[in-house]
């Protein structure tokens, strides 16, 4: 259940800084204390139940991924028949993975999602009947965010599902190259057209240019109207999720270059996003920025240390709330003609993001939604209908049924021929 109603005011109901940091009022101890209390409380399950939850989670996720990879393999020949059919088919399988992780989170790691934003996104984040949310973000945009924990992308992909029109089949993520070697998942992400980066621009730039060129190709519909395919390109300019080691490297870089070191985020890397925006600037109008915060991460601690896979999905201790604060920037207003000016602009946005994180730590909430009917839209990661997950298995099930009938038919023919002989 949501901790706060949508029309509650943050002043009267926001948790104190100590509660927001993961401590009870009578347990104001430092984050490095050996008496640190997990912000989501004690484990909701004993060891035996955690093992069962882990097995169920593994079976569900593996089977869904297997079904998606089989579906992709069945449709792969379309690449040589009709490229438009191929990309539309793979977009459908991308939707299937979005459904997989949405249902996974709803069952094993449920959390309140509290959403707000400034005046630039007014009217684009709407509460729906039944406690849901609807986003009205454009069909083509670049999305950037701070990187708190490994699964930030999961919540941002779900935003694509909750958007109107649905964009969960048209999201593209820039990833570390090592991720493509993960069994099943790595293969699937290559079919999805995700962009792998080695963090060496000399190597990455030709690959990046090739992929972005595909995303900005102009199409012509039967009536002769020009259009571009839907696309959400997701980047994490910090390069990796916030961690003790990453925090140290960011501080060293700031000191070396005489820069202010932010407290709650890492200094962003501008080269990759500068290249992407320049490649896409004639086909995309906006950059959407999301600041992500998880309830219960105290100062001096890092999300990966608290909300890991076991804690969130097996022990029943997901974040009590996932907080998303949105801003929008026009590409026309971003300095894309000069790398140094862009670097300053991006760093300034990260300092503002750091200030938002500081406000969150003090008040337990980001600023309220500007221009909305409610101050915050509060919901959870879920599908609109429980049966949507069956989409994941539709193609594989249909192919299996057809194969069964063909084998039966051939067996019948063979039997008749044998009888005649």
User: What's the Cα radius of gyration?
Assistant: 24 Å
Given helix and strand content, the structural type is alpha/beta
Identify the strand order in the major beta sheet: 6-5-9-4-10-11-1-12
CATH class of the domain at 111-380: Alpha Beta
Taking all residues together, what is the mean pLDDT? 87
Question: How many runs of DSSP E, i.e. beta strands?
Answer: 12
* Distance between the first and last residues' Cα: 71 Å
The appropriate CATH architecture of the domain at 111-380 is 3-Layer(aba) Sandwich
Q: SSE order in H/E notation?
A: HHHHHEEEEHEHEHEEEHHEHHEHEH
The CATH topology of the domain at 111-380 turns out to be: Glycerol-3-phosphate (1)-acyltransferase
Ranges where pLDDT stays below 50 over 5 or more residues in a row are 1-34
Helix content: 40-55%
Strand content: 5-15%
Shape: globular
**Sheet with the most strands, sense and barrel status:** 8 strands, mixed
| Tally of helical segments | 14
Offer a concise description of the structure.
The chain contains 14 helices and 12 strands. The chain has helices spanning 10-13, 17-20, 47-75, 78-81, 83-108, 152-162, 185-191, 201-215, 244-256, 271-280, 303-306, 309-314, 339-363, 391-420, and strands spanning 112-117, 125-128, 132-135, 140-145, 171-176, 195-197, 218-220, 226-228, 231-235, 286-294, 321-330, 377-380.
């Amino acid at each position: 259940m949501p901790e706060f109603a949508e029309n509650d005011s943050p002043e009267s109901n926001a948790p104190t800084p100590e509660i927001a940091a993961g401590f009870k009022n009578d347990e104001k101890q430092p984050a490095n204390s050996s008496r640190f209390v997990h912000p989501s409380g004690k484990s909701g399950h004993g060891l035996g139940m955690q093992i069962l939850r882990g097995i169920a989670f593994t079976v569900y996720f593996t089977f869904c991924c297997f079904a998606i990879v089989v579906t992709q393999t069945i449709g792969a020949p379309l690449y040589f028949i009709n490229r438009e059919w191929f990309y539309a088919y793979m977009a459908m399988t991308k939707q299937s993975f979005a459904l997989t992780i949405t249902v996974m989170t709803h069952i094993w790691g449920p959390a309140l999602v509290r959403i707000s934003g400034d005046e630039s996104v007014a009217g684009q984040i709407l509460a729906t009947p039944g406690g849901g949310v609807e986003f009205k973000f454009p069909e083509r945009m670049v999305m950037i965010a701070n990187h708190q924990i490994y699964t930030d992308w999961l919540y941002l992909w779900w935003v694509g599902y909750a958007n109107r029109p649905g964009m969960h089949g048209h999201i593209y993520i820039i990833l570390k190259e090592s991720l493509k070697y993960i069994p099943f998942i790595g293969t699937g992400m290559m079919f999805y057209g995700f962009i792998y980066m080695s963090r060496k621009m000399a190597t990455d730039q030709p690959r990046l240019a090739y992929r972005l060129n595909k995303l900005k190709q102009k199409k012509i519909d039967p009536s002769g109207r020009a259009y571009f395919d839907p696309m959400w390109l997701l980047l994490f300019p910090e390069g990796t999720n916030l961690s003790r080691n990453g925090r140290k490297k960011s501080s060293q870089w700031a000191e070396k270059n005489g820069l202010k070191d932010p407290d709650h985020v890492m200094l962003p890397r501008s080269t990759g996003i500068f290249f992407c925006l320049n490649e896409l600037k004639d086909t995309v109008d906006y950059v959407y920025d999301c600041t992500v915060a998880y309830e219960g991460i105290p100062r001096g601690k890092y999300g990966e240390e608290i909300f890991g896979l076991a804690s969130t999905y097996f022990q029943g201790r997901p974040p009590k709330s996932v907080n998303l604060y949105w801003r929008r920037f026009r590409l026309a207003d971003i300095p894309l003609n000069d790398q140094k000016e862009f670097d300053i602009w991006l760093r300034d946005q990260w300092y503002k993001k750091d200030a938002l994180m500081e406000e969150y730590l003090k008040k337990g909430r980001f600023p309220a939604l500007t221009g909305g009917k409610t101050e915050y839209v509060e919901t959870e990661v879920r599908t609109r209908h429980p049966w949507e997950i069956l989409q994941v298995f539709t193609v594989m099930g249909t192919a299996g049924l057809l194969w069964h009938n063909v084998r039966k038919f051939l067996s019948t023919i063979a039997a008749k021929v044998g009888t005649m002989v």
